[in-house]
Predict the 3D structure of the following.
Amino acid sequence: MRNLLVFITKYNAFFLFLIFEIFSLIVYLKYNSFQKASFINSSNEVTGSLFARVNEFRDYLSLKDDNDKLALENARLRNQLKSSFYLDTVNKHKVNDTVYKKQYEYIVARVINNSVNRTNNYITINRGSNQGVAKGMGVICNLGIVGKVVYVSGHFSVVQSLLHKDSKFSAMLAKNKEIGYIEWSDDFDPHKGVMKDVSNNALPRVGEEVVTSGYSLFPEGVPIGKISNLHTKTGGLFLNMEVTLAVDFSNLQYVYVVDNKFATEQAGLEAQQKKDE
Protein backbone atom coordinates (compact mmCIF):
# COMPACT_ATOMS: atom_id res chain seq x y z
CA MET A 1 0.00 0.00 0.00
CA ARG A 2 2.82 2.36 0.91
CA ASN A 3 4.55 1.66 -2.41
CA LEU A 4 1.32 2.43 -4.27
CA LEU A 5 0.98 5.78 -2.50
CA VAL A 6 4.61 6.59 -3.26
CA PHE A 7 4.06 5.72 -6.93
CA ILE A 8 0.91 7.91 -7.19
CA THR A 9 2.65 10.81 -5.41
CA LYS A 10 5.67 10.55 -7.71
CA TYR A 11 3.56 10.63 -10.87
CA ASN A 12 0.68 12.77 -9.60
CA ALA A 13 1.10 15.30 -12.41
CA PHE A 14 0.66 12.58 -15.07
CA PHE A 15 -2.43 11.12 -13.40
CA LEU A 16 -3.93 14.60 -12.98
CA PHE A 17 -3.32 15.29 -16.69
CA LEU A 18 -4.90 11.97 -17.62
CA ILE A 19 -8.02 12.69 -15.53
CA PHE A 20 -8.46 16.15 -17.08
CA GLU A 21 -7.87 14.72 -20.56
CA ILE A 22 -10.55 12.05 -20.12
CA PHE A 23 -12.97 14.56 -18.60
CA SER A 24 -12.40 16.99 -21.49
CA LEU A 25 -12.95 14.21 -24.04
CA ILE A 26 -16.22 13.22 -22.37
CA VAL A 27 -17.48 16.82 -22.34
CA TYR A 28 -16.36 17.33 -25.95
CA LEU A 29 -18.24 14.25 -27.17
CA LYS A 30 -21.29 14.80 -25.01
CA TYR A 31 -22.05 18.33 -26.21
CA ASN A 32 -21.03 17.97 -29.86
CA SER A 33 -23.47 15.78 -31.78
CA PHE A 34 -21.30 15.30 -34.89
CA GLN A 35 -18.23 14.24 -32.92
CA LYS A 36 -20.41 12.04 -30.71
CA ALA A 37 -21.92 10.25 -33.74
CA SER A 38 -18.47 9.82 -35.31
CA PHE A 39 -17.11 8.37 -32.06
CA ILE A 40 -20.03 5.93 -31.71
CA ASN A 41 -19.66 4.76 -35.31
CA SER A 42 -15.93 4.27 -34.93
CA SER A 43 -16.31 2.44 -31.62
CA ASN A 44 -19.00 0.20 -33.10
CA GLU A 45 -16.72 -0.66 -36.00
CA VAL A 46 -13.83 -1.48 -33.68
CA THR A 47 -16.07 -3.47 -31.33
CA GLY A 48 -17.64 -5.37 -34.22
CA SER A 49 -14.24 -6.24 -35.66
CA LEU A 50 -13.07 -7.40 -32.24
CA PHE A 51 -16.13 -9.61 -31.75
CA ALA A 52 -15.64 -11.06 -35.24
CA ARG A 53 -12.04 -12.02 -34.37
CA VAL A 54 -13.19 -13.54 -31.08
CA ASN A 55 -15.86 -15.59 -32.88
CA GLU A 56 -13.32 -16.77 -35.47
CA PHE A 57 -11.04 -17.90 -32.64
CA ARG A 58 -13.90 -19.73 -30.94
CA ASP A 59 -14.82 -21.40 -34.25
CA TYR A 60 -11.20 -22.50 -34.66
CA LEU A 61 -11.18 -24.03 -31.17
CA SER A 62 -14.36 -25.96 -32.00
CA LEU A 63 -13.03 -27.38 -35.31
CA LYS A 64 -12.07 -30.69 -33.70
CA ASP A 65 -15.58 -31.24 -32.34
CA ASP A 66 -17.09 -30.23 -35.68
CA ASN A 67 -14.78 -32.62 -37.57
CA ASP A 68 -15.65 -35.45 -35.17
CA LYS A 69 -19.36 -34.84 -35.76
CA LEU A 70 -18.90 -34.75 -39.54
CA ALA A 71 -16.88 -37.98 -39.50
CA LEU A 72 -19.58 -39.72 -37.46
CA GLU A 73 -22.24 -38.45 -39.83
CA ASN A 74 -20.25 -39.69 -42.83
CA ALA A 75 -19.93 -43.12 -41.21
CA ARG A 76 -23.70 -43.20 -40.62
CA LEU A 77 -24.36 -42.29 -44.26
CA ARG A 78 -21.86 -44.90 -45.50
CA ASN A 79 -23.72 -47.52 -43.49
CA GLN A 80 -26.86 -46.63 -45.45
CA LEU A 81 -25.27 -46.88 -48.90
CA LYS A 82 -26.58 -49.59 -51.20
CA SER A 83 -23.02 -50.96 -51.51
CA SER A 84 -23.09 -51.75 -47.78
CA PHE A 85 -25.82 -54.33 -48.29
CA TYR A 86 -25.79 -57.84 -49.69
CA LEU A 87 -28.57 -58.68 -52.13
CA ASP A 88 -30.11 -62.04 -51.34
CA THR A 89 -32.73 -62.89 -53.98
CA VAL A 90 -34.80 -66.04 -53.55
CA ASN A 91 -37.27 -67.33 -56.14
CA LYS A 92 -40.04 -69.39 -54.55
CA HIS A 93 -43.34 -70.43 -56.18
CA LYS A 94 -42.70 -67.94 -58.99
CA VAL A 95 -42.55 -65.06 -56.48
CA ASN A 96 -39.40 -62.95 -56.37
CA ASP A 97 -38.58 -62.20 -52.75
CA THR A 98 -35.70 -59.67 -52.61
CA VAL A 99 -34.11 -59.12 -49.20
CA TYR A 100 -31.25 -56.77 -48.44
CA LYS A 101 -28.90 -57.93 -45.72
CA LYS A 102 -26.34 -55.63 -44.14
CA GLN A 103 -22.87 -56.74 -45.28
CA TYR A 104 -20.63 -53.76 -44.46
CA GLU A 105 -20.55 -51.45 -41.46
CA TYR A 106 -18.18 -48.53 -40.96
CA ILE A 107 -16.42 -47.53 -37.74
CA VAL A 108 -15.13 -43.96 -37.75
CA ALA A 109 -11.64 -43.41 -36.29
CA ARG A 110 -9.16 -40.56 -35.96
CA VAL A 111 -5.54 -40.93 -37.09
CA ILE A 112 -3.18 -40.32 -34.16
CA ASN A 113 0.09 -41.48 -35.76
CA ASN A 114 1.15 -41.91 -39.38
CA SER A 115 4.21 -42.37 -41.61
CA VAL A 116 4.70 -42.08 -45.38
CA ASN A 117 8.49 -41.98 -45.87
CA ARG A 118 9.47 -45.52 -44.84
CA THR A 119 9.63 -48.82 -46.70
CA ASN A 120 6.86 -50.16 -44.44
CA ASN A 121 4.40 -47.49 -43.34
CA TYR A 122 1.81 -47.85 -40.59
CA ILE A 123 -1.06 -45.75 -39.26
CA THR A 124 -2.31 -45.73 -35.64
CA ILE A 125 -6.00 -44.99 -35.05
CA ASN A 126 -7.95 -44.30 -31.85
CA ARG A 127 -10.34 -47.25 -32.15
CA GLY A 128 -9.78 -50.84 -31.00
CA SER A 129 -11.52 -54.05 -30.04
CA ASN A 130 -13.76 -52.22 -27.56
CA GLN A 131 -15.28 -50.37 -30.53
CA GLY A 132 -15.58 -53.49 -32.73
CA VAL A 133 -12.31 -53.26 -34.67
CA ALA A 134 -10.62 -56.60 -35.46
CA LYS A 135 -7.44 -57.71 -37.20
CA GLY A 136 -7.83 -58.05 -40.97
CA MET A 137 -10.48 -55.38 -41.45
CA GLY A 138 -10.06 -52.95 -44.33
CA VAL A 139 -9.61 -49.22 -43.78
CA ILE A 140 -10.75 -46.43 -46.10
CA CYS A 141 -11.14 -42.65 -46.00
CA ASN A 142 -13.42 -40.28 -47.88
CA LEU A 143 -11.03 -40.34 -50.88
CA GLY A 144 -10.33 -44.08 -51.18
CA ILE A 145 -8.62 -47.13 -49.67
CA VAL A 146 -6.03 -46.71 -46.91
CA GLY A 147 -4.93 -50.21 -45.80
CA LYS A 148 -5.84 -53.02 -43.42
CA VAL A 149 -5.81 -53.52 -39.66
CA VAL A 150 -2.87 -55.66 -38.47
CA TYR A 151 -2.69 -55.04 -34.69
CA VAL A 152 -5.51 -54.34 -32.24
CA SER A 153 -5.70 -53.43 -28.55
CA GLY A 154 -8.69 -52.37 -26.49
CA HIS A 155 -8.65 -48.74 -27.53
CA PHE A 156 -6.19 -48.50 -30.45
CA SER A 157 -5.35 -50.24 -33.73
CA VAL A 158 -2.40 -50.24 -36.11
CA VAL A 159 -3.15 -50.16 -39.83
CA GLN A 160 -0.76 -51.49 -42.47
CA SER A 161 -0.88 -48.69 -45.01
CA LEU A 162 -1.16 -49.21 -48.76
CA LEU A 163 2.30 -47.62 -48.65
CA HIS A 164 3.82 -50.89 -47.41
CA LYS A 165 5.92 -53.31 -49.43
CA ASP A 166 3.67 -56.24 -48.42
CA SER A 167 0.32 -54.52 -49.08
CA LYS A 168 -1.65 -56.00 -51.97
CA PHE A 169 -5.37 -55.51 -52.63
CA SER A 170 -7.75 -56.73 -55.31
CA ALA A 171 -8.58 -53.97 -57.80
CA MET A 172 -10.39 -53.50 -61.08
CA LEU A 173 -10.76 -51.03 -63.90
CA ALA A 174 -13.92 -49.04 -63.27
CA LYS A 175 -14.96 -49.00 -66.92
CA ASN A 176 -14.76 -52.65 -68.04
CA LYS A 177 -14.44 -54.46 -64.67
CA GLU A 178 -11.12 -56.16 -65.57
CA ILE A 179 -9.54 -57.56 -62.40
CA GLY A 180 -5.97 -57.17 -61.15
CA TYR A 181 -4.34 -56.15 -57.89
CA ILE A 182 -2.86 -52.93 -56.55
CA GLU A 183 0.38 -52.49 -54.61
CA TRP A 184 2.80 -49.69 -53.78
CA SER A 185 5.20 -48.57 -56.51
CA ASP A 186 8.80 -49.79 -56.45
CA ASP A 187 10.21 -46.26 -56.19
CA PHE A 188 8.33 -45.73 -52.88
CA ASP A 189 6.57 -42.60 -54.09
CA PRO A 190 3.69 -41.98 -51.61
CA HIS A 191 1.49 -40.77 -54.48
CA LYS A 192 1.97 -43.77 -56.80
CA GLY A 193 0.87 -47.40 -56.93
CA VAL A 194 1.02 -50.18 -59.50
CA MET A 195 -1.93 -52.23 -60.74
CA LYS A 196 -0.66 -55.61 -61.92
CA ASP A 197 -1.78 -58.68 -63.88
CA VAL A 198 -4.58 -57.07 -65.89
CA SER A 199 -5.41 -58.82 -69.14
CA ASN A 200 -3.92 -57.19 -72.20
CA ASN A 201 -7.37 -57.50 -73.80
CA ALA A 202 -8.71 -54.91 -71.35
CA LEU A 203 -7.39 -51.99 -73.45
CA PRO A 204 -7.14 -49.57 -70.49
CA ARG A 205 -6.49 -45.89 -71.05
CA VAL A 206 -4.42 -43.31 -69.21
CA GLY A 207 -6.74 -41.41 -66.88
CA GLU A 208 -9.12 -44.34 -66.36
CA GLU A 209 -10.24 -44.84 -62.77
CA VAL A 210 -9.13 -47.85 -60.71
CA VAL A 211 -11.44 -49.03 -57.91
CA THR A 212 -11.80 -51.97 -55.52
CA SER A 213 -13.23 -55.16 -56.98
CA GLY A 214 -15.23 -56.34 -53.98
CA TYR A 215 -13.15 -59.54 -53.85
CA SER A 216 -11.17 -58.55 -50.76
CA LEU A 217 -11.73 -56.42 -47.66
CA PHE A 218 -13.62 -53.57 -49.27
CA PRO A 219 -16.97 -53.04 -50.98
CA GLU A 220 -16.88 -52.82 -54.74
CA GLY A 221 -16.18 -49.41 -56.23
CA VAL A 222 -14.08 -47.72 -53.55
CA PRO A 223 -11.64 -45.39 -55.37
CA ILE A 224 -7.96 -46.34 -55.55
CA GLY A 225 -6.62 -43.91 -58.14
CA LYS A 226 -6.26 -43.21 -61.85
CA ILE A 227 -3.99 -44.80 -64.47
CA SER A 228 -1.01 -42.57 -65.27
CA ASN A 229 1.12 -44.97 -67.37
CA LEU A 230 0.96 -48.43 -68.98
CA HIS A 231 3.66 -51.12 -69.01
CA THR A 232 3.53 -54.51 -70.76
CA LYS A 233 4.98 -57.54 -68.97
CA THR A 234 7.24 -60.05 -70.71
CA GLY A 235 5.19 -62.02 -73.24
CA GLY A 236 2.63 -59.28 -73.63
CA LEU A 237 -0.22 -61.22 -71.97
CA PHE A 238 -0.67 -58.91 -69.00
CA LEU A 239 -0.37 -55.22 -68.21
CA ASN A 240 1.18 -53.44 -65.27
CA MET A 241 -0.24 -49.95 -64.88
CA GLU A 242 1.16 -47.06 -62.92
CA VAL A 243 -1.62 -45.53 -60.81
CA THR A 244 -1.77 -42.09 -59.23
CA LEU A 245 -3.28 -42.82 -55.81
CA ALA A 246 -6.50 -41.03 -54.83
CA VAL A 247 -5.52 -40.71 -51.16
CA ASP A 248 -3.00 -38.17 -49.88
CA PHE A 249 -1.50 -40.32 -47.10
CA SER A 250 0.47 -37.41 -45.63
CA ASN A 251 -2.78 -35.59 -44.81
CA LEU A 252 -4.94 -38.31 -43.22
CA GLN A 253 -7.07 -37.21 -40.27
CA TYR A 254 -10.15 -39.44 -40.22
CA VAL A 255 -10.62 -42.97 -41.56
CA TYR A 256 -13.36 -45.61 -41.62
CA VAL A 257 -12.75 -49.22 -40.59
CA VAL A 258 -14.76 -51.57 -42.83
CA ASP A 259 -16.46 -54.39 -40.97
CA ASN A 260 -17.42 -57.05 -43.54
CA LYS A 261 -20.04 -59.17 -41.78
CA PHE A 262 -19.49 -62.09 -44.18
CA ALA A 263 -15.68 -62.06 -44.05
CA THR A 264 -15.32 -64.89 -41.50
CA GLU A 265 -17.77 -67.13 -43.35
CA GLN A 266 -16.04 -66.53 -46.68
CA ALA A 267 -12.53 -67.04 -45.24
CA GLY A 268 -13.55 -70.30 -43.57
CA LEU A 269 -15.09 -71.68 -46.74
CA GLU A 270 -12.07 -70.72 -48.87
CA ALA A 271 -9.69 -72.25 -46.29
CA GLN A 272 -11.62 -75.51 -46.46
CA GLN A 273 -11.44 -75.48 -50.26
CA LYS A 274 -7.65 -74.98 -50.17
CA LYS A 275 -7.33 -77.80 -47.65
CA ASP A 276 -9.16 -80.20 -49.96
CA GLU A 277 -6.97 -79.38 -52.96
